[in-house]
Amino acid sequence: MLLLTESAHAYLEPLRFLRSDGARVVDAMRARGARFPTASALADPSMWVVGLLRMSAALRRGLGTSLGLSTVLRLGFHIDVWTDDIGPGLRLPHPFNIVIGDGVEIGPGCTILHGVTVQRGAGTRIGRGAVLANGTTVLAGSRVGDGCLVGAASVVRGRIPAASVAVGAPARVVRASRPGEAAP
Fold first, then answer.
1. Domain housing 68
2. At 45, which helix (H) or strand (E)?
3. Care to name a GO molecular-function term for this sequence (predicted)?
């Protein structure tokens, strides 16, 4: 019986992050002045996409297949995610054309905008609370530090230190990030 319980916990682990994922969307709606932030969040595509990602990960862990949820993400949103190592509080404000390779670790509270590619590879890590802006590419083996803001169309190669703003191709640190700046 203990094995069944451990197996069930592993199977359901990705789903336990749904509450913090949803809370980030509700907070964003509240910040925009939505009269009914929870209702607005439920109508937001990012809420549905993150839910599908979490359910797909849980099914892959438990059954070895996502039962077509990955296909729905690919065909409906052009989102191709090969890793299950995504921390709580994921936010995808514009959930389209996103590729996250196998072996990538995404820390808690990250925000990923549309057109982002994070190449597969061991050691590729996006730190806690980082923001990857539109069209960013993170090359295999790169590390984006906690609280970083990576500007639009940047190409990350190597390491970006924590609490910094990096832009360009290749991405270079231009300044320290300001409090709250890396959490839209």
1. 1-176
2. helix 45-63
3. O-acyltransferase activity
